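User: structure tokens for this one?
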Amino acid sequence: MPYPGTDLDTVNLARQLVDGEQVLVGVTPPPGSQLPPSNGPAGGPGAPTPGGLVDLNTATAAELETLPGVGPVLAQRILDFRAEHGRFVSIEDLREVSGIGEQKYVDLQARVRVS
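Assistant:
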């Protein structure tokens, strides 16, 4: 039973956790924290790995939407880019996706990987 007033709306209570993973509930993460989001997907080929990284070559639109600043439109652009150009060879390939400028690239580069 959660403490009264604890907001659980941003927590996916059905998500499988990875051994050693921290899930912050009811607190604000410290600035610069690289902890994976607690509301991430429950698993799957592109799901965040133990380090919280999303694989650009296998992620679904829903998995891409767990990234900061990525909504349905940008997630679809990433999938369309992958379908048109093939697999991402490096994270830097994100710069070629329409809608990903320099700041968005900086925000995403530490949260994604390519397999």
